[in-house]
Amino acid sequence: MSFPMRTSRLAAPRSAIAFQSRRTFRASAIRSLKESDRHNPDQAADNAKHQADSVSKAKDGKGHWKPELASDSEEAVAADRSDHSAESLKDLQDKTAGHAEKKHK
Predict the structure, then answer these.
(1) Dist CA 39 CA 72 (whole Å)
(2) Could you report the per-residue pLDDT of 32-43, keeping only the tens digit for each?
(3) What highest taxon heads this organism's lineage (predicted)?
C-alpha cells in the first residue's frame, strides 16, 4: 500500500513534510513592563512594590498614575499629553540642570 504513495506525483516528499513541521519562530518568556528593564533581576520585586502602593492609594482615593508601572511608550505618550506651559518648562529645565550638577559632581 505504501508503494503507490511513494510513486505518486501528488505526494509530497518526506523532506518537505519534515520541513513544514519544524518550528522556526520562538517567543521569549521575558515578562517586564518596560522594554528597558529586561536586564534588571530585581524588576519583579519593584513592580510588585509599586503595584501594591498604587492599589492602596487607589483604595484611599489618592491614586495617581505611576510611570514605574507603565511601558516606555506609555510613558512617552503621557509626557506628550502633559501640560507644557512656559512656567512648567522652565521648572523642568531647572530641575534637569540641578540633577545633572548633583549627579556629575
Answers:
(1) 15
(2) 667 777 777 888
(3) Eukaryota
